Each structure stands twice: as structure tokens, then as C-alpha cells.
Amino acid sequence: MSAEKKIPPEMFDPKCNMTPEMTAKLYDNWSGYYEEEIITQRNCRAPRVCAGAVAKALGGSDRGKARVLDVGAGTGACGEEVRRSGFLMWVPGPERARKR
Q1: What percent of the chain has pLDDT over 90?
Q2: Which InterPro entries does the UniProt record give (predicted)?
Q3: Whole-prediction pTM value?
Q4: Integer angstrom CA distances of residue 38 from 22, 58, 67
């Protein structure tokens, strides 16, 4: 992944008025370098926070048997972190973006 890639500036333009189709296209185009840019370069904590929240919510259950549906899975980073924390029945769910 190129370190030169940046978050698409349209994401932060309050006057952009992006349609759902425009948003889907933006994420499709961004998907190839999203994980490198957001998770790695910017040290995004969201996957770890998500896994912690799942663990807290399902604290008393058997992690190996609990089923976790990841809706809006995107790149799957949160689901992978949930799986690493012991929830083996993680199921990737629907995602609006066509590319991952």
C-alpha cells in the first residue's frame, strides 16, 4: 500500500451532500488502502475497543460457542480482533461496499 494515499477529502466536506451511491463508490475506491491507512498508519483503536465491548457484553458466555454477527464488516478488522479474543463463531455480515 502506498503511504501517499490519504483519506478522501470528500469525507470531511460538510457541503458535499454525497448520495448513498457516491458514498458506496468512495468506499469502494478507498477499500484498497483503507486498512493500511486507518488501522496501521493512524493506529486506529476501534477494532480493539469493539472486541473489548463484545467481551464485556458476553462476559459470562463460553467464547468458543458464542455467535457474533459482524454487521457492516468493512475490511473485517473488528471481526478479526473479536476472533483473536476467543470468539470463534464470528460471522462476517452484510457490507454496503462492494470491494473489501
Answers
A1: 4
A2: SAM-dependent_MTases_sf
A3: 0.61
A4: 20, 27, 27
